[in-house]
Amino acid sequence: MLVYPSAIDLSTVHLRHLSRVLAARRREIGSRWRRLTPRRQALLALAHLRSGDTYAQLAVGFGIGIATVYRYVREAIDVLAALAPTLNKAMVMARSKAYVILDGTVLPINRIAADRAYYSGKKRHHGMNVQVLTDPFGRLLWASPALPFATHDLTAAREHGIIDALGEAGLKCWADKAYQSAAENVRVPFKGRRLKRWQRRHNTTHAKIRCVGEQAMATLKSWRLLRKLRCSTNRITAIVKAVLTLHLAAASG
């Protein structure tokens, strides 16, 4: 077997935060002994989330069984997901912003062709729809639960209660054409080919504002596990929430 040194492109803030959370979890459930310390378990989970290392690779690298790796990773994801901000909390944070940016992203998944609800004929692959809210600087504020790829962005936003929450909070929101007719406070570009000059100028300005939100999408997909998910679709929401928690912890720490 060949072994080589590797690294994870994360700061120690992520490791310290997850280590503290896992240590608190062990005290809560009264866990007396584990094969790995909270710090080593945190490192294992980060290697899986950030680098996309498989359970088999992690088992060899940390000298434990594959089943143990699965339990450790699942536990770390679940405790992080439980700490992710709710939509209401995100609205409280967003009230101090001039506006927010709403957009949807697709997380590719490994599914069979028969799973039509998860398949996009336009993109020609299976995936999950995740709605993302960012501040005017493109910093991630909130990520929604994952829905099948076939779900339209506006339908997803309404199902998650995003449109109603923005209206109740009195927040202005910039979004793309997929959110046409969402609400008065949701600003979208004009549709059509024969637009007037002022409408084209409006669309150009709108695009400059909204493109900043792409930074949040890049933040999510910098976690390699989210670039091609091979787990059950029931676990994807927890993974997204776990990544969100780690991102916010690092941003505030």
How is the secondary structure organized here?
Blueprint: H1 12-29, H2 38-51, H3 55-62, H4 66-82, H5 87-94, E1 100-108, E2 119-120, E3 125-134, E4 140-143, E5 147-148, H6 153-159, H7 162-169, E6 173-174, E7 186-187, H8 197-210, H9 214-221, H10 236-252
Parallel strand pairs: 1-6, 6-7
Antiparallel strand pairs: 1-3, 2-3, 3-4, 3-5
Helix pairs in contact: 1-2, 1-4, 1-10, 2-4, 3-4, 4-10, 5-7
Question: What is the typical, i.e. mean, pLDDT?
Answer: 90
Instruction: Describe the oligomeric state of these chains in a short phrase.
Output: single chain
Total helical elements: 10
Helical residue percent? 40-55%
Overall number of structural domains: 2
Structural class: alpha/beta
Strand content: 5-15%
Order of helices and strands: HHHHHEEEEEHHEEHHH
Radius of gyration: 20 Å
Report how far apart the termini are. Answer: 39 Å
Record field, number of beta strands? 7
Shape: elongated
Which residue ranges are poorly predicted, with pLDDT under 50 across at least 5 consecutive positions? none
Largest sheet: 7 strands, mixed
Task: Please explain how this structure is put together.
- 47% of the residues lie in helices and 12% in strands.
- The protein folds into 2 domains: 1-83 and 231-253, no CATH class; 87-221, no CATH class.
- Strand 3 and strand 4 (140-143) form a beta hairpin.
- The model has no long low-confidence stretch (mean pLDDT 90).
- 34% of the residues are buried.
- Strands 1, 2, 3, 4, 5, 6 and 7 form a 7-stranded mixed sheet that branches.
- It has 253 residues and is α/β, with parallel strands linked by helices.
- Helix 2 crosses helix 4.
- It contains 10 helices and 7 strands.
